[in-house]
Specification:
Blueprint lengths: L3 H15 L4 H9 L5 H8 L6 E3 L22 E8 L2 E8 L1 H4 L1
Antiparallel strand pairs: 1-2, 2-3
């Protein structure tokens, strides 16, 4: 059973991951008329069917300065859901992370 402290750590990690590259970068995309990665996937899938996979994934890159960088969800949102009643798997690059 998880303690309240462990649950709080998980909530903080999840909030950080879901923020992607940050609210400011997402607002920049919105100002250009573009959607964020999760928004694109939610628009594709039928309501309430999207299930994200590997939300807490971390990159293993060590070159080009990546060892020091934290990339939420490794900059890629992956999941499954239904499109027109059919099961579908899809991914979306999160350009707020490295783009």
């Amino acid at each position: 059973m998880l303690s309240e402290k462990q649950l709080e750590i998980l909530r903080e990690r999840r909030a950080k991951v879901l923020a992607g590259g940050g609210e400011d970068k997402l607002q920049e995309r919105h100002a250009k008329g573009l959607m964020g990665a999760r928004e694109r996937l939610l628009a594709l899938f039928q309501p309430d069917t999207f299930q994200e996979i590997a939300t807490h994934a971390k990159h293993a890159g060590k070159h080009f300065g990546l060892a020091e960088k934290e990339l939420p969800s490794d900059g890629v949102i992956v999941g499954t859901g239904f499109v027109d009643g059919r099961p579908v798997a899809a991914f979306s690059q999160d350009f707020t992370v490295m783009g």
